[in-house]
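Illustration 12: WxxW domain-containing protein.
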Amino acid sequence: MEARTRSGVSALHTGNHFHTFSAAEGLLCLNSDQEGGMSEQCRTQWLNSDDPSQGGGDVESIAQLLKTFPGRVCRNPLSIEAETLRGVSAEHTGDSFLSYAGYDTTFGFACMNEKQSRKQCEDYQVILTCPSDFCQGCRTRWFDEDDPSERGDFETLIQLKMMFPDEICSEPISIEAKTLSGVPANQTGDLFQ
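Figure caption equivalent — predicted structure in token form:
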């Protein structure tokens, strides 16, 4: 039996403790068995898109994060956390924030220099908890940008990213190919590089 998370990580590499993990009984992962109390959440990496010395503060808005980190940020986060680049939680810095606690899942995180009594804002990074379907991965539409020629049919990721930068995530985890008539590539008998 094999198992993986919705984001594609092998169950054996998650660090989770499994109550049951066998072909005979299936998989059972209990939050109560985990050291932190919960199994994997759908979270982004720590992200930093702004600097407090530019523009009057440190603004980590959802809109800017989506532009700066395409494919790695969800549009509708469930929660947002902020910490300094040194790892100090935002609530322990003494900075004042635009909204209560500075965490707004609609806008993002903002610390304005003019609101600080003694200094400019710290340089913050944020991490978003996203709906579980974001970590399941998404699928693009089918692309066909090349036709078979003397050399073959080339549908390269580099070419597709240049042509469709807003439609392809920065770090795809898999790729599928099929003929225009719908036959999966691995069933055509063709050889691939």
